[in-house]
């Protein structure tokens, strides 16, 4: 049902449409025009000499897809994987695509249903952290600027030196 709703949503103007995901304790908004498909969670094949946040590779419809623990990349604890966890593909361009582990896919969100958060908003140090919003239930949401993330030197440096 989610896959059908995503396909339908992509046919509409998606300037203010997002896929809401929970990664660890944080809620992220992924812009629909830059978000690929949502895959069932499966353990990636590990790759030696990579960063701790790089979980490995999966085969996604015949293409190798790198899987990132985005929570760990952001300096948080490993993203909890539970029943219902998914791999969300960032970018529709196969050459640039990667998957991030989502503890939970919350569903479609529209900017019109969100408001500016109550209280102080702290400026982000990360170029990929976009606008902040709050929903009607008081949950804070952060827009993930996928283009900025996929171009960030720290994100592109998956390998690590042997010790």
Automatic annotation (TrEMBL):
Q: Name one Pfam family in it.
A: CheW
Recorded hits in InterPro entries, A to Z, give: CheW, CheW-like_dom_sf, CheW-lke_dom
- Ranges for domain CheW-like come to 15-155
Question: What does UniProt give as the signal peptide span?
Answer: none
Q: Can you name this protein?
A: CheW-like domain-containing protein
């Amino acid at each position: 049902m989610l896959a059908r709703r995503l396909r339908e949503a992509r046919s509409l103007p998606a300037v203010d449409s997002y896929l809401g995901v929970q990664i660890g304790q944080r809620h992220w908004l992924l812009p629909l025009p830059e978000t690929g498909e949502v895959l069932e969670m499966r353990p990636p094949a590990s790759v030696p000499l990579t960063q701790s946040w790089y979980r490995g590779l999966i085969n996604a419809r015949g293409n190798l897809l790198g899987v990132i623990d985005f929570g760990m990349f952001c300096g948080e604890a490993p993203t909890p994987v539970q029943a219902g966890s998914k791999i969300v593909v960032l970018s529709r361009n196969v050459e640039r695509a990667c998957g991030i582990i989502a503890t939970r896919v919350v569903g479609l969100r529209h900017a019109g249903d969100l408001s500016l958060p109550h209280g102080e908003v702290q400026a982000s140090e990360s170029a990929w952290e976009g606008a902040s919003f709050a929903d009607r239930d008081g949950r804070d949401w952060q827009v993930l600027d996928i283009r900025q993330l996929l171009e960030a030197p720290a994100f592109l440096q998956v390998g690590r030196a042997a010790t």
